[in-house]
Write a structure and sequence with these properties.
Structural class: alpha+beta
Helix content: 40-55%
Radius of gyration: 19 Å
Distance between the termini: 47 Å
Shape: globular
Length: 108
């Protein structure tokens, strides 16, 4: 998994010399393919959460999980699916406006 850290900065007007507040997480490197393979389920779950939050495909493409899954797919297309097809298949399972998966119809 990628190394990340919090970047501290001083609080304005605090008057205390040692008081820091933490800023956003910063990714400092690209994970290796082996690290991506080990965390494939995590990124797939993150994509699932994007679908559950009713995020648009164009917005999902900007996410870290999409980029990581794309990199895995480009490196090993026979082993890892395209994130767009995964996103669309997950989207098809959800009812619009609902956070629960759609039930399949029983065959008659």
């Amino acid at each position: 998994m990628g190394v990340f850290f919090f970047r501290p900065f001083r609080l304005n007007g605090s008057g205390r010399s040692g008081l820091f507040r933490m800023s956003l997480i910063t990714f400092t490197n690209q994970p290796t393919i082996d690290e991506l393979r080990q965390t494939f389920e995590v990124y797939t779950k993150a994509l699932h959460l994007l679908v559950a939050d009713n995020v648009d495909v164009s917005e999902a493409r900007k996410s870290v999980c999409w980029r990581r899954l794309s990199r895995l797919h480009e490196s090993m297309p026979n082993h890892y699916p395209n994130p767009e097809s995964t996103f669309l298949s997950l989207k098809a399972r959800f009812n619009p406006g609902s956070k629960t998966p759609a039930r399949r119809r029983k065959r008659s």
